[in-house]
Amino acid sequence: MKPKDVIVYNLEQALGASRCPLCHCLAAATKRYLANFLYESVNDPRIRDQLRAAGGFCREHSRVLQRMGDPLAHSIIYADLIEACCAELDQTAGDARKGHSLLRADKERACAVCQEEAAMADRYVDGLLGALRNSAFREKYRQEGCLCLPHFRQVYDRSRNNEERAFLVEVQTSYLSRLSGELKEFIRKSDYRYAHELPGTERDAWIRAVRFWVGPLDGEA
Ligand SMILES: [Zn+2]
Ligand SMILES: [Zn+2]
Fold first, then answer.
1. What domain of life is recorded for the organism (predicted)?
2. How many domains does the chain have?
3. pLDDT for 184-199, tens place per residue?
4. Which domain holds residue 137?
């Protein structure tokens, strides 16, 4: 399969589970990238040089990587990073007396996974807009599509077609009115007069609402 076809295939597979298909596909791509890093790149001095220059991974991706395990790979990575940190502390100790910051600020560094994810997100946003021109995909998206708010903004802003934008808004509004209905149902059943009613799909709507608002947390999707 060509890379474009793989993207459309992955998006199609991700539809239909009350989750943002872009979040799901990007989290899976990030896990593949990190697994590849753990198993193949950790002993590659060139890649470790890049990781040192970037100051390691960001907080979110460090946690995703740690949850994947591999104590030996982590020991190699962090022994290297800590050695570089000590060298940096040594070099800049003089500057500290002049009131300079001892270590470079995090914002000066760029997590390699964040950069990879941003490039991948661009490809997936384009892939989704391209796939929506296919009537079968479009129908499936109409039934089961729901983007998190950050990805909705990204897809909507990238679209250059008024009809396409109207379609995106229509699907998003329909999803949000269902979610809002579930949240209201949860609130209703929290009233003691209705507390005896069995819980339905609304029981985890609050989790989906947070995920909709900010995207997945710590690599979940
Ligand atoms: Zn998303
Ligand atoms: Zn990152």
1. Bacteria
2. 1
3. 999 988 878 877 777 7
4. 3-214
